[in-house]
Each structure stands twice: as structure tokens, then as C-alpha cells.
Design brief:
The complex is a heterodimer of chains A (184) and B (660). With 184 residues, chain A is an alpha/beta fold. In chain A, 36% of the residues lie in helices and 17% in strands. Chain A contains five helices and seven strands. Chain A starts with 6 loop residues before the first helix and ends in an 8-residue tail after the last helix. Chain B is of the alpha+beta class and 660 residues long. In chain B, strands 2, 3, 4, 5, 6 and 7 form a six-stranded antiparallel sheet that branches. Chain B starts with a helix and ends with a helix. Classes of the chains: A alpha/beta (184), B alpha+beta (660). Chains A and B meet through helix 1 and helix 2 of A and helix 10, helix 11, helix 12 and strand 9 of B.
């Protein structure tokens, strides 16, 4: 037997072992290490044309809040944007924006044109803070309780269903100080 | 009752598959003709049983029998009939049943069309098909029974994912599976050849039509999937390097290599063990795709719901099939002796280059697909491999491949002359220069990749036509002789010309649509006009509309071309009730010149609506190219040599000698 003919088998065995390990992992469990943990330490300046920046202290103010990671270059953000506007109008909880890797002029134009649902915005120009938050794709939305603990993370654009069935009930429970049964 | 009949039919099919997988194999080894003769009968019996089971499940869907769990979970009474039927394979269990149905149909087809095969080879091929069938039937019966009942039955079903309620997607999986599973025949032939220790031109001739057929189906399947992504996901993109897309693309790349290397085995009796390996790998990659999609190892919009027991089962199955066949390969492949001598500069040399590049491309896609999982397993970090990686790897691999694609067919077997081939390709060189000049002028030389794409497309397209013109002596001989030559040109040669032209069109489509696309995203109010490339869209507003199982917000745009209203486009956001979900229905006006593409997003009358409008030149050439490639494959498939059926080995050897 010539050894060269064994190469495909050896490669396959290696891949097979990898796949077997892969099976034991759950891909949907996107770095959820942060859920139940305090928000990372950070402090960001506001985006251009806005006054209030965003820092860790703002998220520990005693009331639950929503942190939305967005960018003007992100098309799904545009889709979910009206839902955030609606949430802001209902005033269930403050919504803060984490503006991820964006151009200052673009984002300020974006907020002027589409409306600004955010109480505070943090401009994360180089994406460092995004990494701390485990941002994986924009948009992402975090529910943070009054003590600054991350309670829920939603990856991808919010849909009306998510808002009605996940975000709002969770925020209401947190505001009422109840243990929430909402699954994230 | 019907569901139980279906279940019983599957159990019987498993029993028959066991018989088919074991007895003929032993019969062939021991020389027992009666045992070998079992194979075709068992294959056809299996086909009948599985078809019956599939019919039973379809019946349950059509009659909305919600006492069947699978139907209750995936169907709904309000669903249009087309989607009730396509709902059969719009879920894990049903699609697995479709997979098995196609597998047994291929098995039965080998039994019917393989009359000329030597008895032992035929018995072994069908036996291997039977063993694959055993694996899949056990999989469906033990982990994914589509006929499981639910008590008490719900009054209404849960509905089918609205994204899947689409004519493009209704037919995407069947074509894809016809491709995946079709490669099982090449695999069975390869394993049978390894057992027999014999690969010769006749073998290559028997394998080629099956590979071609599978390749054609897979090409259409992938094109349909990409087309679906283009208009249903509403992002205007058509390929995302999503793991599930890659899962279908890898067998396509390997299968394309196999098609070409089988030609070398047929004509030159060399590259034997490589071709065998490719046949094994192509089907292994199809199986790997199944594993990736169904085990939950990777996360993707296309992935079916995850279930670890299924993953374990498929992994073990994968281990047995791929591990077993590669072990057999390691043991037996050294026996296969090349007969023909091999010169690097020759038609076969060009085909080896093709194989090399396609194999590396396959490996690159495999690496990119599995890398996130490997990193997760080893380092516990979540990463995703984006289009950037694939584009970076793919462009340097495809460039020489496309460049050589025009030259290869002009090289002679055994010893070719690149210089002479290039001299005969002067019109292609001219076309390339013109394309480059045009590109430079239009782009001011800004985009090197675009120039490369244009040059390659022109080179390949005109180069392919050159080769065809030389073969039929177009303009070089009187018209009557040219026509006569065209008439007698083998269908396989026509097939190659057409398929390569399809590739050229696709390259041009990809290049032009990505470089010259115009995209406008903005908020529009009724009456607003947006200029997008050479056309203007006038927004007329949004109206609610009602469909059979959804409500929608439908936007209306007038498209103004050359000062006149050319048409009205109506993109929509659909909201399905069951399951609750929103889908984006892009409005598309396809045309050979440029697609118009409009999407309406969220908004209200006061603030206006977020819209995305595109002008996409030549984008339809991408799918047109794929269809033309498939047509080329079908032409080649209809070649006389395949149609008359491969004659016995001796006669082939004699006629091949005469042809030399």
C-alpha cells in the first residue's frame, strides 16, 4: 500500500473528529457569556450632533433600558428602526444607541432623516466597545436591567413579534421588579 | 390509515435494501448468478415502496391530515395547494423522504438502463446503492419518522415558514437532491470498481452520463436557490457564501472536476485513481452537506431545526460511508495502473489543471465552511467566515481556470502545442483587449477586479466560439462543408461549447452587475421621484392588500424610462399569521439588459417609507449562464455514445482502437 493513498482517509478522520466535537456545541448560543453579567466597562462620546454620550454608569441608573447596536450602513437597522421609534414613543424604558463603526456625518444624517429613538448614543468609531459587548452582527439589541446586568440579547433586526413577545414583557417585568419568565 | 401504510412501506423498503445491499455483493464475490440477479429486482421494488410512502405523505399534506405530526407542524389549511405539496419536503423528515425517493429512483434507473453492464459490476453497483439506502432508511425510521401521529390532533396546522412559500423554493430542493443523490451513482460505480480492481475506458463511459445528469440537476438546483435568495430575501444579493450554500457548492465543484477527469479516463486511460477518489469525494461532500444542514453544527437561515441525535446518526453514517470507501481506496487504488503516457502540455494536461484548480477551490470552500466550527471547538471562540475570505481565495483560483478553459479544448490529446492554440485564439485575444479598453474607458481604470472579470468573460466567451468555429471550419471552408461538419459534430462537443459559453455569460453577469449596479436607499413619500441609474422611480404610496394566508403592505412605483412610464412595480412586506412572520417581496422586472429591483420597507404616511431601489445591469445573465451550462450538460448527455448505451467492453476497445 502506498502511503499517498492514505492521505484522503487521514484527512477525513480529522474532519470527522472535528465534526463530532462540533456536534456537542450549540451554534445558536452566540456568545451569551454576557447574559446575566454586568455590562462591560466603557465610556463613549455622543455621536455628532447629539449631546449625551453613553457609558457604563448610564446603564446602572436603576431603571431597565434597551441598548441597540446600529449603524447607518446597516440595512436591517433601517428596517427595525420604525419599531424602535414606536418603542420610544411608548416610553416603556429608555433606549440607548451604540453606534457601531460608523461615519459621524452619515449617522447624524441617518438619525435626522429617520428619527432619533435614542436617549443617549455612544459613538464606537473603531468598534472596540462593540467587541467588549460581543457584538457579532449589526443590528443587535440588549435588554439591560436597572443594576446594569445584561438580561437578554437579540441578534439581527427586531421584528414586531420580538418586540411584543420578548422585549416589552421583559422590560415590564424588570420595571415591576419581577423575575421574568420571558425566554431570551 | 394512509400514514401507517406509508410507514409500513418504508419498513419493507429497509428490509429490501438490506437484501439488495448484502446478497448481490456476496453473489458477485462468490460467482452466484441468482444472488446477483436479485439486485435489479430489489432496486425496483424499493423504488415502488418508497414512492408509495412518499405518495402517502403527500396525501396527508393535501388532505391536511393534522393527526400526522409532520403535517400539523408544517402545513395549514389556508395554504395554497402548491405549497401544501411542496410543504412535504419543506421540513426535515419530508425532505429526507424525498432524498430517499430520489436515491431509489436512481437505483432503479441503474437497474433499468444498466442492461449492458457486466453482471458482477452491475450487482456490485446496485448493492452499494442498496447499502446507502439502508443508511438513509434507518435514519428516517429511527430518528425522523415523517408518519408519526399526534394525539389529540390539532384543529389547525402550524404553517410553513413563509420564506419557503415560494415557487422558486418549491422546486429548489428536488433539483438539489437530484444532484446530490445523483452523485451516489458515480460513488457506487467507484466503489464497485475498487472492489473489482478494474477501471478502464468502458467504466468511465458508464459513469459519465450519471455524473452529467447529477451535475445538470445540481446546477439548476443551485441556480434556483440563488435566484430565490435574490428575490425573496430582498437584499438584492444572489450568493452569500452561507454554509448551506457552500454545502451545495462543494459537490458541484468536485462534480465538475469529476466530469472532466472521467473524460481523461475514457480517452487516455490515465488519472484512474484520481477519478475514483473524486467520485468518492463528490458524494461524500453531498453527504457532508446533509450533515451540516441537518445536524445543527452550523447556524444558517436555511438550516433545519437542530436535533443532536440526528447529528450523531448522520455523523456515524458519514463515517461508515466515507471512511469505509476511503479505506477501500487506500487498499485498492494502488492496483489501478495507468496505461496512457502523460504529457503536461496536452488536452489531458489542461484537464488536470482544471481538476487541480477545482479541487483546491473545493478545499478552500470546505475550509471556510468548517473553520468557524473548528475555532469554536478548539478555542471556544465564535467567528464567522465572510464573503471576503471566499472572494479573496476564489478570484486567484478562478482566473487561471477561466483563462485555461478557452485554451484547453484547442490542445490535442497526448501532445498539445500551446503556442499554436494561442495563435488560433487571436479573435479571443482581440475581444479581451476590446473588453479591457471598454472597461478602462468606462471605469477610468478604478476597479482592477472588474477589468479582470470583463477580460476573462470576453476571453472565455470568444475563445469558446473560436474553438467551435475551427471545428466546423467556419469561414475557412465552403458553407456547405461547415454545415455538414456542424451536423456531424458530436453532441458532447456541442455540449462543451454551450456549457463553456454559459460560464462566460455568468462571469460577465457577475462582473457587470456588481460593478455597475446602482443602489438607492432612502425614505420616500408618495409623489417623490428617485433617480436610479438610467431610470426614475416615482413612488405612488403604500396600500394594504390581502392574500390567502397573509396581509401585506404593498408599495407602488411607476418606473419612468426615457420620459415615459414604462411599468408599475409593486413590492410588498407580507405579514403571515401562521406562523407569525414577515417577508419582503421585492418587485423585480428582469430583463437581459438590466433588472429593476424595488423593495419597500417600514414606514407610515407621515414620515414616508424606507425604500431600496436598484438598477442591476446583466444580473439575469448569472442564472441564464447557469441554465445554459445545464443545457450544455443535457446536450452532452444526449450524445449518441451514451444513448445507445455503453456496449460491451471488448467492442469498445475495438472501436476506440479504430478511432485512434
Amino acid at each position: 500500500m502506498r502511503l499517498a493513498y492514505l492521505v484522503p482517509l487521514v484527512l477525513f478522520v480529522l474532519i470527522g473528529i472535528g465534526l463530532a466535537v462540533g456536534l456537542t456545541l450549540n451554534p445558536r448560543e452566540i456568545p451569551s457569556a454576557l447574559i446575566g453579567k454586568p455590562v462591560p466597562e466603557f465610556s463613549l462620546p455622543p455621536v455628532e450632533g447629539r449631546k449625551e454620550g453613553l457609558s457604563t454608569a448610564d446603564l446602572k441608573a436603576g431603571t431597565p433600558s434597551l441598548v441597540n447596536v446600529f449603524a447607518s450602513w446597516c440595512v436591517p437597522c433601517r428596517i427595525e428602526h420604525p419599531l424602535l421609534m414606536g418603542l420610544a414613543r411608548e416610553q416603556i424604558a429608555p433606549i440607548h444607541g451604540l453606534n457601531y463603526k460608523d461615519n459621524p456625518a452619515d449617522v447624524s444624517k441617518w438619525l435626522d432623516q429617520l428619527g432619533d429613538p435614542f436617549q443617549r448614543t455612544g459613538a464606537d468609531r473603531d468598534g472596540r466597545v462593540g467587541i467588549e459587548w460581543g457584538v457579532y452582527g449589526v443590528p443587535e439589541t440588549f435588554v439591560v436591567d436597572g443594576q446594569g446586568q445584561i438580561r437578554c440579547k437579540h441578534v439581527g433586526p427586531l421584528t414586531e413579534w420580538d418586540v411584543e413577545n420578548k422585549i416589552k414583557p421583559l422590560l415590564r417585568d424588570l420595571t415591576a421588579g419581577k423575575e421574568s419568565a420571558v425566554k431570551c | 390509515m394512509v400514514a401507517e401504510f406509508g410507514h409500513i412501506a418504508l419498513i419493507l423498503a429497509l428490509a429490501l435494501a438490506l437484501v439488495q445491499g448484502i446478497l448481490p455483493l456476496i453473489g458477485a464475490a462468490r460467482g452466484i448468478p441468482a444472488w446477483m440477479a436479485l439486485a435489479p429486482t430489489a432496486a425496483m421494488g424499493q423504488a415502488v415502496l418508497v414512492a408509495f410512502a412518499f405518495g402517502c405523505l403527500t396525501y396527508a399534506y393535501v388532505t391536511s391530515d393534522f393527526s400526522v405530526l409532520n403535517v400539523a407542524e408544517n402545513s395549514h389549511t389556508l395554504k395554497p395547494m402548491l405549497y401544501k405539496v411542496s410543504g412535504v419536503w419543506g421540513n426535515h423528515e419530508g425532505s429526507l423522504l424525498l432524498w430517499i425517493l430520489i436515491l431509489v429512483i436512481f437505483g432503479a434507473a441503474v437497474a433499468v438502463f444498466g442492461r449492458n453492464l457486466p453482471a458482477t459490476l452491475k450487482a456490485r453497483v446496485l448493492s452499494i446503492q442498496g447499502l446507502i439506502g439502508v443508511g438513509f432508511l434507518a435514519f428516517i425510521l429511527f430518528t425522523s419518522n415523517p408518519f408519526a401521529r399526534i394525539l389529540p390532533p390539532p384543529l389547525e396546522g402550524r404553517g410553513l415558514n413563509p420564506l419557503l412559500q415560494d415557487p422558486g423554493l418549491a422546486f429548489h430542493p428536488p433539483f438539489l437532491y437530484l444532484g446530490y443523490v445523483g452523485f451516489s451513482v458515480a460513488f457506487s460505480f467507484a466503489v464497485a470498481a475498487l472492489i473489482e480492481g478494474r477501471v478502464d475506458p468502458a467504466w468511465a463511459r458508464w459513469v459519465r452520463p450519471w455524473t452529467l445528469a447529477a451535475w445538470c440537476f445540481l446546477t439548476v438546483g443551485i441556480a434556483l436557490g440563488s435566484w430565490w435568495a435574490y428575490y425573496e430575501l430582498g437584499w438584492g444579493g444572489w450568493w452569500f457564501w452561507d454554509p448551506v450554500e457552500n454545502a451545495s457548492f462543494m459537490p458541484w465543484l468536485a462534480g465538475t472536476a469529476l466530469l472532466h477527469s472521467a473524460v481523461v479516463v475514457e480517452k487516455r486511460e490515465t488519472l484512474k485513481s484520481w477519478t475514483i477518489l473524486l467520485a468518492i469525494l463528490t458524494f461524500s461532500l453531498s453527504l457532508l452537506g446533509t450533515f451540516l444542514v441537518r445536524s445543527g453544527v452550523i447556524n444558517s437561515v436555511h438550516a433545519f431545526a437542530t436535533d443532536p441525535t440526528r447529528g450523531v446518526f448522520i455523523l456515524i453514517f458519514l463515517g461508515v460511508v466515507v471512511g469505509g470507501s476511503l479505506t477501500l481506496y487506500a487498499l485498492r487504488a494502488p492496483v489501478l495502473q495507468a496505461v496512457g503516457v502523460f504529457a503536461p502540455v496536452s488536452r489531458e494536461g489542461a484537464l488536470v489543471l482544471n481538476n487541480l484548480l477545482l479541487a483546491v477551490a473545493t478545499a478552500a470552500v470546505l475550509l471556510g465552511t468548517l473553520y468557524p466550527m473548528a475555532v469554536d471547538a478548539l478555542l471556544g471562540a465564535k467567528v464567522s467566515v465572510g464573503p471576503q475570505y471566499f472572494n479573496t481565495v476564489f478570484i486567484p483560483l478562478m482566473t487561471p481556470l477561466l483563462a485555461a478553459m478557452a485554451i484547453g479544448p484547442l490542445l490535442a490529446w497526448k501532445r498539445g502545442d500551446v503556442g499554436a492554440a494561442l495563435r488560433r485564439l487571436w479573435p479571443a485575444a482581440l475581444a479581451t483587449v476590446i473588453a479591457l479598453a471598454l472597461g478602462l474607458w468606462l471605469l477610468h481604470g478604478r476597479d482592477a477586479l472588474a477589468l479582470l472579470g470583463l477580460a476573462l468573460g470576453a476571453w472565455l466567451g470568444i475563445g469558446t466560439l473560436c474553438e467551435w468555429a475551427l471545428r466546423i471550419k467556419l469561414f475557412a471552408a465552403p458553407l456547405s462543408e461547415t454545415l455538414n461538419r456542424a451536423r456531424h459534430l458530436p453532441r458532447a462537443a456541442w455540449g462543451m461549447t454551450v456549457a463553456h459559453l454559459g460560464m462566460a455569460l455568468m462571469v460577465l453577469g457577475i462582473t457587470v452587475s456588481s460593478v455597475w449596479q446602482v443602489e438607492v436607499q432612502q425614505v420616500m413619500k408618495p409623489g417623490d421621484i428617485a433617480r436610479v441609474g438610467p431610470v426614475e422611480y416615482r413612488f405612488l404610496g403604500v396600500q394594504p392588500v390581502r392574500g390567502p394566508n397573509y396581509t401585506a403592505q404593498q408599495g407602488r412605483f411607476e418606473v419612468i424610462e426615457g420620459g415615459e412610464v414604462a411599468r408599475v412595480m409593486t413590492p410588498a412586506q407580507r405579514r403571515y399569521q401562521q406562523p407569525p412572520m414577515e417577508t419582503t417581496e421585492a418587485a423585480i422586472r428582469p430583463s437581459p439588459v438590466a433588472d429593476l429591483y424595488a423593495v419597500v420597507g417600514e414606514g407610515d404616511a407621515a414620515r414616508g417609507w424606507a425604500v431600496r431601489l436598484y438598477w442591476k445591469p446583466l444580473v439575469s445573465w448569472i442564472w441564464l449562464g447557469a441554465l445554459i451550462m445545464c443545457f450544455g450538460g443535457l446536450l452532452s448527455l444526449s450524445d449518441r455514445r451514451h444513448r445507445v448505451g455503453a456496449p460491451a467492453r471488448k467492442r469498445i476497445a475495438a472501436s476506440a482502437a479504430a478511432a485512434e
